[in-house]
Amino acid sequence: MTGTGLAIGVGRGGAVVGPLIGGFLIAGGTSIPLAIAIVGAGATIAAIMLMAMGHSLSATSTR
Questions:
Q1: Which residues in the chain land under pLDDT 50?
Q2: Hey, which of 2, 17, 23, 25 would disulfide with 35, CB 3.0 to 4.6 Å?
Q3: Residue 33: what pLDDT?
Q4: How far is CA 58 from CA 7, 46, 61, in A?
Q5: Measured on CA atoms in the order 15, 17, 21, 27, is the torsion positive or negative?
């Protein structure tokens, strides 16, 4: 298993689970804008983590 294969697998899993979570939220009575905000929060957290990881990698490569 490679890192690229793992990333592709996780991405495909998210592509399946994301709409399921959104559907469950809307079916449970959550408003559509709130459901979108909840699902979007996960993407925002992932983006912040990637940016932090990039900063830590660039700091270690300049040593």
A1: none
A2: 25
A3: 94
A4: 21, 18, 5
A5: positive
